[in-house]
Amino acid sequence: MGQQIQGWRSASGQRLWLSMLIDTMEEISRPELRAVPCDDQLLAALRAQLARPALTHTPYASAYSLRN
User: Fold this and answer.
1) What is the per-residue pLDDT across 3-39, written as a single tens digit (0 to 9) for each?
2) Positive or negative: CA dihedral 44, 54, 1, 21
């Protein structure tokens, strides 16, 4: 996990990202892995990240909105 995908915005990069996501979801859904307790520090870090406000502008986002 935590891998960087170079050129993820290309079609092949998007397919690679999606493939890695599916592989990860399948791996963590295995019963023997679901039975393993999560590390408390990992959970705390995840909760802290999710508690942060969402960015209103990201450097790669379009200036155009689908709501217009």
Assistant:
1) 555 555 677 788 898 999 999 999 989 999 888 888 9
2) positive
What 3-state DSSP class applies to 60?
A: coil
Which residue type does 32 have? E
**pTM across the whole model:** 0.46
Separation of alpha carbons 31 and 54, rounded Å = 33
Query: Amino acid identity, residue 55?
Result: L
Q: Residue range 35-62: average pLDDT?
A: 82
Lowest-confidence range among 18-32, 35-49, 52-66?
52-66
Tokens representing 15? 């397919």
Q: Which residues contact 7 (CB under 8 A, 6 or more apart)?
A: 13
Report CA torsion sign: 35, 37, 47, 21: negative
